[in-house]
Amino acid sequence: MTEDQAVSSLAALAHVQRLRVFRALVVAGFEGLTPSVMAEQLGLARNTLSFHLKELAHAGLVTIEQQGRNLIYRAEFSRMTGLMDYLTENCCQGAACEATGDAAACRNC
Asked: Which residue of 23, 70, 99, 104 is 20 to 30 Å from 89, comparing CA positions?
């Protein structure tokens, strides 16, 4: 992941509603969600949801698949993993570390 891609992803997630939408898609997993289900789950107006989904898609954080009349939105897990890898690439001063516990603290830090 490049620095520009990381900034784009972080900027897209730096909004409460978009973060909630993305988290809902992560929970849904590879099955994904339709906009109508997301709107109902999150209590968002469809036009507002559409705007936030467009921003997440532009940042590469969600994918869209048409199934018949429905659009299925899914979290782009490879992009999410890439962002996490980018953010933690040099943790523990570059030494190998292993996340443990609920706080995911580094053992070697």
From this structure: 23
